[in-house]
Amino acid sequence: MLDELHEECGVIGIYNGENVARNVCMGLYALQHRGQESAGFAISNGEKIRVRKSMGLVSTLLREHNVDELQGFAGVGHVRYSTTGSSTLANAQPILISCKWGQLAIAHNGNLTNAAELREEMEEAGHIFQTTSDSEIFLHEIARTQAPNLKEAIKKAISKLTGCFCMLILSKDTLYVARDGFAFRPLSIARLGNSWCVASETCAFDLLGANYVRDIQPGELLTITKEGLQSETFTQKGRLAHCIFEYIYFARPDSKIFEQSCDKIRRKMGKQLARECPVDADIVIPVPDSSTTAALGFARESGIKFEIGLLRNHYVGRTFIDPTQNVRSQKVRLKFNPIEGVLKGRKVCVVDDSIVRGTTLKILSKMLRDSGALEVHIRIASPPVAHACYFGMDFPNAGELAASSMSPQEIAKMLGVESLGYLSIAGMKECTSAPSDYCAACFDGIYPEYIGKEAGKFSCG
Amino acid sequence: MLDELHEECGVIGIYNGENVARNVCMGLYALQHRGQESAGFAISNGEKIRVRKSMGLVSTLLREHNVDELQGFAGVGHVRYSTTGSSTLANAQPILISCKWGQLAIAHNGNLTNAAELREEMEEAGHIFQTTSDSEIFLHEIARTQAPNLKEAIKKAISKLTGCFCMLILSKDTLYVARDGFAFRPLSIARLGNSWCVASETCAFDLLGANYVRDIQPGELLTITKEGLQSETFTQKGRLAHCIFEYIYFARPDSKIFEQSCDKIRRKMGKQLARECPVDADIVIPVPDSSTTAALGFARESGIKFEIGLLRNHYVGRTFIDPTQNVRSQKVRLKFNPIEGVLKGRKVCVVDDSIVRGTTLKILSKMLRDSGALEVHIRIASPPVAHACYFGMDFPNAGELAASSMSPQEIAKMLGVESLGYLSIAGMKECTSAPSDYCAACFDGIYPEYIGKEAGKFSCG
Amino acid sequence: MLDELHEECGVIGIYNGENVARNVCMGLYALQHRGQESAGFAISNGEKIRVRKSMGLVSTLLREHNVDELQGFAGVGHVRYSTTGSSTLANAQPILISCKWGQLAIAHNGNLTNAAELREEMEEAGHIFQTTSDSEIFLHEIARTQAPNLKEAIKKAISKLTGCFCMLILSKDTLYVARDGFAFRPLSIARLGNSWCVASETCAFDLLGANYVRDIQPGELLTITKEGLQSETFTQKGRLAHCIFEYIYFARPDSKIFEQSCDKIRRKMGKQLARECPVDADIVIPVPDSSTTAALGFARESGIKFEIGLLRNHYVGRTFIDPTQNVRSQKVRLKFNPIEGVLKGRKVCVVDDSIVRGTTLKILSKMLRDSGALEVHIRIASPPVAHACYFGMDFPNAGELAASSMSPQEIAKMLGVESLGYLSIAGMKECTSAPSDYCAACFDGIYPEYIGKEAGKFSCG
Amino acid sequence: MLDELHEECGVIGIYNGENVARNVCMGLYALQHRGQESAGFAISNGEKIRVRKSMGLVSTLLREHNVDELQGFAGVGHVRYSTTGSSTLANAQPILISCKWGQLAIAHNGNLTNAAELREEMEEAGHIFQTTSDSEIFLHEIARTQAPNLKEAIKKAISKLTGCFCMLILSKDTLYVARDGFAFRPLSIARLGNSWCVASETCAFDLLGANYVRDIQPGELLTITKEGLQSETFTQKGRLAHCIFEYIYFARPDSKIFEQSCDKIRRKMGKQLARECPVDADIVIPVPDSSTTAALGFARESGIKFEIGLLRNHYVGRTFIDPTQNVRSQKVRLKFNPIEGVLKGRKVCVVDDSIVRGTTLKILSKMLRDSGALEVHIRIASPPVAHACYFGMDFPNAGELAASSMSPQEIAKMLGVESLGYLSIAGMKECTSAPSDYCAACFDGIYPEYIGKEAGKFSCG
Ligand SMILES: Nc1ncnc2c1ncn2[C@@H]1O[C@H](COP(=O)(O)OP(=O)(O)O)[C@@H](O)[C@H]1O
Ligand SMILES: Nc1ncnc2c1ncn2[C@@H]1O[C@H](COP(=O)(O)OP(=O)(O)O)[C@@H](O)[C@H]1O
Ligand SMILES: Nc1ncnc2c1ncn2[C@@H]1O[C@H](COP(=O)(O)OP(=O)(O)O)[C@@H](O)[C@H]1O
Ligand SMILES: Nc1ncnc2c1ncn2[C@@H]1O[C@H](COP(=O)(O)OP(=O)(O)O)[C@@H](O)[C@H]1O
Ligand code: SF4
Ligand code: SF4
Ligand code: SF4
Ligand code: SF4
Ligand SMILES: [Mg+2]
Ligand SMILES: [Mg+2]
Ligand SMILES: [Mg+2]
Ligand SMILES: [Mg+2]
C-alpha cells in the first residue's frame, strides 16, 4: 500500500557521546521511513545549543549542512512526516527556543488531542505562536509553568497534554525523555559505550551499534544527566494503547516495537490471514516492500508458493513531472513493475498490508491482469480501515477511506478482483502478546481517550 | 568609507494597493543600502497573512520566491543589515506570528535599549523566544497586553519600549505604523493612487511613483485601515534626537531625510569642511559613492578642481575568495582603482564621509601615492567617531574606533598622509536646520536617553 | 551485491510520438539502474534538435529542466553509469553536434575496444575532442566519412568500430539505431500507438505501455523515418556474444533480455546453484534486491525455507557524510539491516549474485553472525569473477578482484564464513537457451574479439 | 547609456605565477564589465589542463567552484558578454579540447568575419561542432593544420582568420597570445614578479599589482614559455583599426587602452563636445557611471557647474521580476534616481556617452523633468551610431538604432528634450593621438576590412 498513508515522525536523542551530530544523523537515516518532509538536529556543547534543519530527506540535510560543524556531547534529531500543503522550514524540528529555563530544543513525535484548547488558552494568556506545530504549544507550557526547576516544569506541563507524544527535550546539560500514558508510539532506550541513545525505533540502535536496554514506560519522564538516568512517572492511565498499526505498516520490520519483533508479528498476521481467508491460488506475491513479511507468513501457512511478481523501483522518489492525465496510474507503474514470467497463466494471490483509499491496489490489480494473471485475489493483513486516527497517523478523511462506505464485496468489485479478504480485528489482536494493550481505533472505532475539538487536524511534532 | 559600518535596516509598508508584493519588493530595492543580510515581505489578503524571506539581497528574494504568488491588498517588507556571525533565516524579517489578536507580521528598524530587561522579565513570566531579534520582544508585549483591542495593545506595548524604533505591524486588515518619541530613524508616508505607502527613505517612493506626504511624527502611532488614517501620540519626550549620521553616510542622498534633502545637507557639510579645514591641493576627489556629494561641496567652496580619481567597481559584492594574506588590501583594491592620469604629480585632497577604523583609508592612501600623488590630504565630512551608538547603528567596539584612542594627528600618521581634517561638531550641526533636534552621541558622547544594561548588543529588527 | 560494480549505461529513443520528452524521461526512470551519474535527453521538432542534461539521477534532470519545454516528434535519452573521478557534464549524453549532415544527437551504451587507436588517428587527421567519451569518436567518424548521405556515412562509420555498442543517432528527421555484431548489450524495439520505441531494457516499454516487437539484430542498422523502419546489416561476426552478466546482475529481473525473461534465467541459476553446491542450512536469505530471484530459486530447489533476513533501506543514495574510520562498514550497515528474529539461532545460507571484491559480503557476514546466526554459508549465483571486461562493464582492476588471487576456500576464509560455493561456468551457461551465444570472458577469460591497446579504460557513451 | 550595448568579452592569462587560479579570477573581477553572461578559467599544472566555468558573474564562478582546487603554473580566464537568447554553459569559455597537439584551452575575445565560411568548409571536411562560438572554429583550424609544431600550426591557423580577435591559447606548457592585424580590441602584457600577465584591460594589472609592459602588437603572435617571450608577426595589414568605441563606453576609464589613458581621452571628448555643442544650462550632470568622465570634461570646458543629479543604484543586477507593463520604465527607475534638490528649477545639461536606441534616455529625460528640471539638454560624447559593428560589439540591428532613421532633431523630439548635440566624427577622432589608426565604422560606415556573409551574427569567443 503506497502513497496513501503519511507516516508520523521519528525522533532520536544521544547523550554523552562522541560525534554526536554525525551519529544523530545516521540514526535519522534509519528512521527516514517515519518522515520525509523535513529533517533536523540540535546539538548541545554544554554551553549552547545549535540547530540545523532542511526540507527534504536526511540526505538533503547532510548536503546542506556540515554535520561536523556542530560539536557537542548531546543531541536530538527529528524526521517529519510528508504532506503536501503546509510544509515549511518553520514547522521543521527540532524547535530551538530560549526561555526562563535557558535554551531548549524539542523533538516531538505525536499528536496532542487538546492542542486547540491549549493554544486558545495560551493565546488568551498572551502567548505568540510562530509555527503551527503542537510542539510549540508544549514549549509554551513548559516556559510558563511555575516550578522550582525545569524538570518539575516539564512534569507539570506534560501532565496537561492529552493524546499521543514521544518527546525529547534537550537543555544545555540534560536530556529529558517523555512518553504519553497510553504509550501510543514506540520509544526505546539503548546503551552505546558510555552514552545513552533514545529512538523511535530500534533499527536506529542497530545502525549505531547501540544495545537495546528497554522501552520508555507509559507516562514515564526520564531525565538523563552526567550522573545517569532518573525515572519518574508523571501520569497513569488505566490502560495501554499501543498503536497496532505500527506493526502493520509504519515500523520497519527489523525494529523491536513495543518489546516485540515487528517482523514476527507481521509474519503472524500473514499466517492468521491465511487461516481466516484461505485462497485457491498458484502463487502468493507481496506488494513490496511493506507487505513482504506478511506475504511470507501467508505463503508459509497456506502452502502456496511465494513469488516476487511485482518489482519495486529503487529510484522513485518525490520529484515528479507535473500532473497530467493518467498521472496516478503512471506513478504506480513507475514504482512497481509486474514480472510477466511469474504472473502469466497463474492464479495470483496478492498480499498487502492494508487498504486505505484503494486506488493503488486498483491500478496494481489491472497491471497484474494485463501481465497475464488468470485470477487476482487480494488478502489484506489487517482489518478494514474505517475510522480516523487522532494519535499521530495521517489518514485521509473518513470519506475517502474505502472501508468507510463500502463493504469488502463492494471494494473487491471496485478493485476488479476475484476475491478480497481482510484479517479480522480479533485475529489481528491475537497476533500480539497482549491484545488489550493495543489501540485499534481506526479499525474498531474504540478510542482509548476523549477526543477534543479540532483534534482531527493531524500534527506531527 | 566602506565595509566599516553596518547599516541598520529598512522597512516599507503598502496599504490598499495593487500588485502589493511586487511593489513592496521594488521598494526594498530602493532601500537595499540599509541592509544586505536578508530580505523579506509579508502580504495580507484580508483573510490570511503569508510571508517570504531569503538570506541575501532583494535579488535573491526575487529569485527564490515567486513574488506574484502572494496576492493581497496590504504588505510590509524589510531588509536587514549585514553582519557576519549570527545571521540566520530565523532572524530575518518580517516575523509572522499568531496570537490572541490573530496573525501579525512585523517589520522593524531600530534598537531597543531596554530589550534585555524586557526579555528577562518576559522569560520570567513564561514566554519563549525563537529568535534573537528585538522585534520578537515587542510581539510578546503586544500579545500579552490586556487591552480592549489590538490598537490599544500596541499603544500600551510601545509605551514600554525605550531606544529607537520604526515599526510596521500588519494585521489581516490593518497596518499600524509607529515611531519612537525621539524619532531617531527616518520614516515617512506617501500616497500612491488610492494606496498609502510608508518607508524608511523617500527614495522608495520615487521608485514607486508615490507622492511624499509627511514624516511619521515622533511618538506617533498611525493606524491605516480601509477608512483611512488615524493618528495618535503614544509618547512625548522633551526633545527630538534625529540620527545625524543618516545625513553623513546611511541614507541615500536622493532621499528626503527628517524633512530635508539628504543631498543638500551632505553638500553643506562638504562646504563647511572646506571652510574649517582648508587645504593646499590641486584636486579634490571623493571616495565613491558615499562621499561624492560632500566632495562636490568641498570642491565648490574651496575652488579646487573636483575630479574622479578613484573608480568604484560595479561588481564587488559579498562573495569573496577565502581569506589569505593581504586579503583586506586586495578587497579594497577590488572595490576601488585609482586613475593614474588624474593623480600623477598632483597634490590630492581626498574627501571621505567618516572614519571608523581607518583601515580602508590607510590602504587607499597608499594606493593613491603609488599612483603618483605627490601629497595626500584627507578631509572628513564629519567629526571623529569616538563613542558607541545604541540607537540602531552597528559601530565596532569603542576600542576599534580610530578616534577613541588617537588624536587626529596620530590618525594622520597612522594613515600615512600629509594632513587630516575633520568637520567640527558644531559645524556639522549647523548644517542642519535645527541643530538641537539631532543625536550626535557617537561624536559627542551625549546620549539623549538612559542606556540600559547590555544595550550595546546591536540588534536591528 | 552492491557498490562494487558500476553499471554501464541505458539508452532510449522514441520516434513519432506525443509528449516525447516526457515519455523519454519516464523511460529513463525505468533504466535508472543502468546509470546514476548523469541523465539527459535530446528532442527534435523536425527543424532543430535541443538537448538537456544533468549530473545525477533522472529526478534531478526533471527538477533542473522543464521537460515540457522541448516539444518535438522524436527524441533520445541516456543514463550514464556512475564512477567517482572524471564525471563532468561535458561527458554526459546525449551529445549534440552540428556537422555537414546537420545536427546529430547521439546516445550510446557500450565500450569501443579500438577507441584509443581511432582517437589517435583522428587527432592526427586534425580533429579535436571536447569529451573523453567514445561517442565523440564515433561522431567524428560519421562527420568525416565521405558518403552520399548520412545513412551511408553511419554505416561506414560503425563498420570501423570494434567492441560493444548500442547506438541511437537522432538527426532532425530520422532516428538511426545500431547494435554491434556480437550483440553484447541488450537493445529492443517496441510499438506504442503510432510511434516506435527503442530501449536498452524492455522494462522501459512496460512503463510506457509499449508493446515489445523484437530485439535489434546483431550488426543491424535500423533507420526509422516517417515512412517506417528500414533494416540493414552492416557487419557479420561469426558468433554472438551476449553479456551473460546482464542476467546475473545488470538487468532488471522484469526485463526480457536477449529475448528471454531475465527473472527466469536468474531463477534457474539459483536452482542450478542449489544442485551444484548444496548446503545444510535452516534458511536461505538473499542480499536484496538483486539476488532475491536467485535466492528464491535456490530455496525452491533445495527445499530450504526462504526468508528475508536482511532489510534494504529505501533511502540510501549517493549523498554521504565525509569518510572517516569505519565508513565502509557504516555504509553497508546503512544499506542493509539484519533481522535478528529471523537469524538468531539459525544456520543461514546467504545467496548473492556475484563476488567482485568481497568487501561488502565480509561486512554482511559479520553482521549476520552478530545477529545470532549460528553458521553463515554463502552461495554465489555466478562463477568467480577473475578477468577484466572490455565490453561495457566497469569492473575493478584485476588485482582487486577477490577471485583473481584467491581460491574459493581462501575467499571463504577472508569472508569468515562456514562455506562458500560458486555456480560453475558450465552450469551458468546451461541456464541460458544457447550457451555458445554468450560472452563469459570475465569468468573464463575467453574474449570474443581482439582487445586493442588501452581498451581497459572503461567508457560508457 | 545602459542596457543597450552588450560588451564583448574580456580575457586574461597568467604564466609562471603562484596562486594562478586565484589571480586569474581576481583579474576577471576587474574585467567583469566586459562580460556578465559567463565566466571561467583553465589552469595547467604542466601535466594536465583543467577547466571551470559558470553561467553568470565571476562571483558565481567563485561560489560554484573551489578556486584553490586547481593548482598550476599557468592559466587563462574569460568573461563572456551578456545576451539573452542562446546563452549556455557549452558556449562559455575557456574551451578545453584535446587534439594532436595535446590539450589546448582557448580564451577568445572578438568576432571572426569569415566564421561562417570557415565553418562550412570545415563541416564539409568532416569536422563536428559542439558550440556556436567562433573559438571552436579556430580550434579546429589549429588541430587540422599540417605543421611541424603547435606554434606553426597556430600561426597558420590565425592567418586564415579575418575580423577581430584577441586570443590566449594555453597548452600544457606554453601560453600563446595573438592579436589580429588591425588590433581592433585592446590587449596588453605586464610583469608581476617572475610571471607574465596578459589582459584585455590594464585595470586587471592594477588589481594584481602587475606592471604594464606594452600592448600586444597588431598581427603579433607571442609565445610565452619558461624560457621567456618570443614574438613573431603573422600578418601585416596596411593600417590599424583600434575600436574607438572602447574609449567612448566599453573600457574602464582607469585602463590604459591602445597605450593611452582611457580617462584622458574620454575627458577630451567631453571638452571637445562642449566646444562643438555649447549649451545654456545651470548644471551639467552625467548618466553615471559611464559618462561621468566626459561630463567632467564638458563642465570644465563650458564652465558650467558639474553636479550629481542622477543616482545609480548599487544593487541593480540581472535578476528582475517578470515583465509587465512599464517594465522598461521601472527598470530605468530602479537603476537611476533623480535628486530633486539638484534638479529643481534648473536648466539641466545631461551628458551621456552614446545613443543607441535612445529608450533609456527618453525615460531619464522625463524623470528629470518630473523632478523639476526647467529644461533638459542632452549632449552625447560621441557621434550618432548609425551602422552595425562586425568586430566584436553587439549593437542592435541597424533598424533599431535611433540614428539610422532619425536626424538629431527628430531624436531630440523623440526624447522630448530642449536640445540634443552630438560630438562630430572628426572631433571625436582628434581626441585620440592618431585619428587614422582607429575604426569608427559604426559612426561613419567605413569598414576597415571586407565583411563576409553572415558576419552580422555577433559572436564573442
Ligand atoms: N526494506 C524493507 N522491507 C520491508 N518493509 C519495509 C522495508 N523498508 C520499509 N518497509 C516498510 O514499509 C513502510 C514504508 O516504507 P517507505 O520506505 O516509506 O516506502 P513506501 O513508499 O512503501 O511507503 C515502512 O514503514 C516499513 O514498514
Ligand atoms: N549612487 C550613490 N551615490 C552616492 N552615494 C550613494 C549612492 N548609493 C549609495 N550611496 C551612499 O553610500 C552609502 C552606502 O552605500 P552602499 O551601496 O551600501 O555601498 P558601500 O559599499 O559603499 O557601503 C549609502 O547609505 C548612501 O549614503
Ligand atoms: N526491485 C528489484 N528487485 C530485484 N532486483 C532488482 C530490483 N531493482 C534492481 N534490481 C537488480 O539490482 C541491480 C542493481 O540495482 P540498483 O538499483 O542499482 O541497486 P544496487 O544499489 O543494489 O546496485 C539491477 O541491475 C537489477 O538486476
Ligand atoms: N566606476 C566607474 N566609473 C566610471 N565608469 C565606469 C565605471 N565602471 C564602469 N564604467 C564604465 O561603464 C561601462 C559599463 O559598465 P557596467 O559596469 O557594465 O555598467 P552599465 O550597467 O552602466 O553598462 C564600462 O565599460 C566603463 O566604461
Ligand atoms: S487509531 Fe489506528 S493508527 Fe491511530 S493509534 Fe490507533 S491503531 Fe494506531
Ligand atoms: S549615536 Fe550617532 S549613529 Fe547613533 S543615533 Fe546618535 S548620531 Fe546616529
Ligand atoms: S566480460 Fe563479463 S561482463 Fe563483460 S561482456 Fe563478457 S560476460 Fe559481460
Ligand atoms: S564599428 Fe564601432 S564598435 Fe565596432 S570596432 Fe569599429 S568603432 Fe568599434
Ligand atoms: Mg512510505
Ligand atoms: Mg554599504
Ligand atoms: Mg546499483
Ligand atoms: Mg554594462
From TrEMBL, chains A, B, C, D:
<keyword id="KW-0411">Iron-sulfur</keyword>
<dbReference type="InterPro" id="IPR035584">
    <property type="entry name" value="PurF_N"/>
</dbReference>
<dbReference type="InterPro" id="IPR029057">
    <property type="entry name" value="PRTase-like"/>
</dbReference>
<comment type="similarity">
    <text>In the C-terminal section; belongs to the purine/pyrimidine phosphoribosyltransferase family.</text>
</comment>
<dbReference type="InterPro" id="IPR005854">
    <property type="entry name" value="PurF"/>
</dbReference>
<keyword id="KW-0808">Transferase</keyword>
<feature type="binding site">
    <location>
        <position position="290"/>
    </location>
    <ligand>
        <name>Mg(2+)</name>
    </ligand>
</feature>
<keyword id="KW-0479">Metal-binding</keyword>
<keyword id="KW-0408">Iron</keyword>
<dbReference type="GO" id="GO:0009113">
    <property type="term" value="P:purine nucleobase biosynthetic process"/>
</dbReference>
<feature type="binding site">
    <location>
        <position position="442"/>
    </location>
    <ligand>
        <name>[4Fe-4S] cluster</name>
    </ligand>
</feature>
<keyword id="KW-0658">Purine biosynthesis</keyword>
<feature type="binding site">
    <location>
        <position position="439"/>
    </location>
    <ligand>
        <name>[4Fe-4S] cluster</name>
    </ligand>
</feature>
<dbReference type="Pfam" id="PF13537">
    <property type="entry name" value="GATase_7"/>
</dbReference>
<feature type="binding site">
    <location>
        <position position="352"/>
    </location>
    <ligand>
        <name>Mg(2+)</name>
    </ligand>
</feature>
<comment type="pathway">
    <text>Purine metabolism; IMP biosynthesis via de novo pathway; N(1)-(5-phospho-D-ribosyl)glycinamide from 5-phospho-alpha-D-ribose 1-diphosphate: step 1/2.</text>
</comment>
<dbReference type="GO" id="GO:0004044">
    <property type="term" value="F:amidophosphoribosyltransferase activity"/>
</dbReference>
<keyword id="KW-0328">Glycosyltransferase</keyword>
<dbReference type="GO" id="GO:0051539">
    <property type="term" value="F:4 iron, 4 sulfur cluster binding"/>
</dbReference>
<feature type="binding site">
    <location>
        <position position="353"/>
    </location>
    <ligand>
        <name>Mg(2+)</name>
    </ligand>
</feature>
<feature type="active site" description="Nucleophile">
    <location>
        <position position="9"/>
    </location>
</feature>
<dbReference type="GO" id="GO:0000287">
    <property type="term" value="F:magnesium ion binding"/>
</dbReference>
<keyword id="KW-0315">Glutamine amidotransferase</keyword>
<feature type="binding site">
    <location>
        <position position="243"/>
    </location>
    <ligand>
        <name>[4Fe-4S] cluster</name>
    </ligand>
</feature>
<feature type="binding site">
    <location>
        <position position="389"/>
    </location>
    <ligand>
        <name>[4Fe-4S] cluster</name>
    </ligand>
</feature>
<dbReference type="InterPro" id="IPR029055">
    <property type="entry name" value="Ntn_hydrolases_N"/>
</dbReference>
<comment type="function">
    <text>Catalyzes the formation of phosphoribosylamine from phosphoribosylpyrophosphate (PRPP) and glutamine.</text>
</comment>
<feature type="domain" description="Glutamine amidotransferase type-2">
    <location>
        <begin position="9"/>
        <end position="227"/>
    </location>
</feature>
<protein>
    <recommendedName>
        <fullName>Amidophosphoribosyltransferase</fullName>
        <ecNumber>2.4.2.14</ecNumber>
    </recommendedName>
</protein>
<dbReference type="GO" id="GO:0006189">
    <property type="term" value="P:'de novo' IMP biosynthetic process"/>
</dbReference>
<dbReference type="InterPro" id="IPR000836">
    <property type="entry name" value="PRTase_dom"/>
</dbReference>
<keyword id="KW-0460">Magnesium</keyword>
<dbReference type="InterPro" id="IPR017932">
    <property type="entry name" value="GATase_2_dom"/>
</dbReference>
<keyword id="KW-0004">4Fe-4S</keyword>
